[in-house]
Structure formats: C-alpha cells, structure tokens
C-alpha cells in the first residue's frame, strides 16, 4: 500500500461503477478505489482484481445505448446488491482541424462524452440513488473549452456539455442526497492519450528516412522561443525550436511537470469521501495550473495552423502521421 494521508479502508463496503475504467486515467481511478477498499464494476478488463484483491466486475455496455447500460447497471446490482459511486469516464477524442471535422466524427464524440454521461447518470439515479437517499457522481472532463483550443472543437463542445450537466445534476439531485462533481485533468504523462493527442506523433515506431527532418520542420513552423522561470537548478530556461512537444508543455505548466494518473486518482478518491460531503456542482481542475498559461495543450499557435496542415501533408508522404485519425472505437460510427 502506498503512503498517503488517506485511510486504507476509507472506501470499505462501497461499490463504484466506472465507465471507461479499463484504460488510462479511469483505470488508475479504478485501481485506486480498489486499493482503498472499494469493489468496482468497469466496462472491460479484470486484471485489477488480481492486483488488489478486490472484486472487479466486467459490465460490458456501450454508454450510448440506454437499454444496454440499464442491463449493465442491473448486473452490478445483482452482483453487489448496492451501488454507491458512479464515475463517468468513457470518452472519445482525436485531433482534427474544425474545417476538416466531419459531422460523423463530431457526433461520435458528443455521443460518447455528453450523451454517455447523461445516459449512465440518468439510469443510476433512477434505479439507485433516488431511492437510497444518497450517492456520488463524478464526471471526468477537460480544460481546453475554458478558453478555446486548436483541433479540439468536438471534444471541447462535448466536455462543456458534461460540465453543464455536473452543475444541473448537482442542483436537481442535491435534495436526494446525491453529490455531483467533476475532475478536469491536464496533460497526464503516463497515459497513451497524451501521445495520441500529440500533433507531432508518428504512427510508426520506426520512422522512414527523412521523416525526422520533416517532423523537425513542422516543429520549427509551430513553435517559438520563450523564457520561463522554473524551480529547478537552472532558474531560467529558454527553449529552442528543437524542444519536444512534451518538454514544451512541461515548461508551460506552472508546477513544471506533467501530471500523473495518480494525481487524478487521488483527487477522485477525495471527492468520494465523507470529508468532501459539502462539495457538489464543482469541477476540480488537476493540471498543475496549465490552463491558466496555455489553453491549447497541443502546443500549436493559431497563426501556424495553415502551415502545420500543409507540412502535415508533406510529412504524410514520408511516413509520419501528423494528424491522428478517428480512433478505431469511433471509426465505424
């Protein structure tokens, strides 16, 4: 067990349903809940049960399918006899300029993020929380829509809807003893999502000859020198155009590091404890202050968009995928 300020049994006898709990941030939340005594149900994977010794039910369902989600919740109730916490973490995202964004891609992200949050919350409230007189809902959001960001219109619109639902649900369901809060993570270094949403990412492990030069060319077109004060041994760092996107992002974060999945998981744990019993309708930003200094985590400047798109086409010819396609989970929608 890790050393933290949390009691080792702080979620003992609780049951949590976590959508998207099989990977990334939500997998870390699932693991953290189980480490602190909570039994869980997720949409996929069962290895967490072996890691923590807690029960982890696989409740397969598409969050966009109301009837399928209803059956999955029934399965959780049959297995555990209760449900105390809901974490809405299922999400879809990819990078795409607004001009190139198809209605199908926009609709897919809206349905998974916004519709999915509504569907699962609606079912859990009506089946469980309304009658038991308490419950906790935690919605996973993001920050680019706070100020606007490149390549993220679809995701920003979906998460803005999620943030609105967090507030409205908190108001309407508060009298039933239900608390509804959100978490908006920033750049998290130990997830595949950070790489997938990197506009300079290659889709191959081994780049063809000349591909690195093309990628560096795109870096040069879309980055500028800047100075930032840090807390390390070198108090003033000046980046150059060869800095990696991850390093540039780190330097734009006031706390001077990328986030970790545990940062988000610990925040989720706190919001689900009795110590947070008077907090509802709030979205906790867990980003090291990043959105205050750089709303666009893709590290692109608006004036560089047209150059970036043209260079991305050139890079594509050399085998470097500069623009992520729709993820496999969304491609058939």
TrEMBL record:
List cellular component terms (GO): peroxisome
Pfam families the record matches: adh_short, adh_short_C2
Which InterPro entries does this one have? DECR2-like, NAD(P)-bd_dom_sf, SDR_fam
Biological process (GO), any one: fatty acid catabolic process
The top EC class, named as a word, is: oxidoreductase
**What is this enzyme's EC?**
1.3.1.124
Q: Which domain of life is it from?
A: Eukaryota
Q: What CDD domains does UniProt report for this protein, alphabetically?
A: TER_DECR_SDR_a (cd05369)
**Catalytic activity, per the record?**
a (2E,4Z)-dienoyl-CoA + NADPH + H(+) = a 4,5-saturated-(3E)-enoyl-CoA + NADP(+); a (2E,4E)-dienoyl-CoA + NADPH + H(+) = a 4,5-saturated-(3E)-enoyl-CoA + NADP(+)
For this UniProt entry, the molecular function terms from Gene Ontology, in alphabetical order, are: 2,4-dienoyl-CoA reductase (NADPH) activity
Keywords (A to Z) from UniProt: NADP, Oxidoreductase
Identify its protein family. Answer: Belongs to the short-chain dehydrogenases/reductases (SDR) family.
Provide the protein name: 2,4-dienoyl-CoA reductase [(3E)-enoyl-CoA-producing]
Organism per entry: Cardiosporidium cionae
């Amino acid at each position: 067990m890790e050393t933290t300020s949390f009691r080792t049994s702080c979620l003992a006898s609780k049951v949590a349903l976590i959508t998207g709990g099989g990977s990334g941030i939500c997998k870390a939340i699932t693991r953290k809940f189980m480490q602190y005594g909570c039994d869980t149900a997720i949409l996929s994977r069962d290895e967490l049960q072996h890691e923590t010794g807690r029960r982890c039910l696989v409740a397969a369902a598409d969050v966009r399918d109301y009837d399928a989600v209803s059956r999955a919740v029934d399965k959780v109730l049959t297995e555990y006899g209760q449900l105390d916490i809901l974490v809405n973490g299922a999400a879809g995202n990819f990078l795409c300029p607004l001009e190139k964004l198809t209605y199908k891609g926009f609709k897919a992200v809206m349905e998974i993020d916004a519709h999915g949050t509504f569907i699962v919350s609606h079912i859990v409230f009506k089946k469980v929380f309304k009658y038991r007189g308490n419950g906790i809902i935690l919605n996973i959001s993001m920050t680019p829509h706070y100020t606007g960001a490149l390549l993220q219109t679809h995701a920003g619109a979906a998460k803005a809807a999620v943030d609105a639902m967090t507030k409205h649900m908190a108001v309407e369901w508060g009298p039933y003893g239900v608390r509804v809060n959100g978490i908006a993570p920033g750049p998290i270094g130990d997830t595949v999502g950070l790489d997938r949403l990197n506009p300079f990412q290659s889709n191959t492990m081994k780049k063809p000859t000349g591909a690195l030069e093309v990628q560096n060319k795109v870096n040069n077109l879309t980055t500028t020198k800047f100075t930032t004060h840090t807390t390390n041994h070198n108090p003033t760092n000046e980046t150059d155009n060869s800095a990696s996107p991850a390093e540039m992002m780190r330097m734009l974060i006031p706390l001077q590091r990328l986030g970790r999945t545990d940062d988000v998981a610990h925040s989720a744990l706190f919001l689900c404890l009795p110590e947070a019993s008077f907090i509802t309708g709030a979205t906790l930003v867990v980003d090291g202050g990043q959105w205050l200094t750089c709303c666009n985590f893709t590290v692109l400047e608006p004036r560089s968009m047209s150059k970036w798109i043209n260079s991305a086409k050139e890079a594509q010819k050399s085998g470097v995928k500069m623009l992520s396609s729709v993820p496999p989970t969304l491609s058939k929608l």
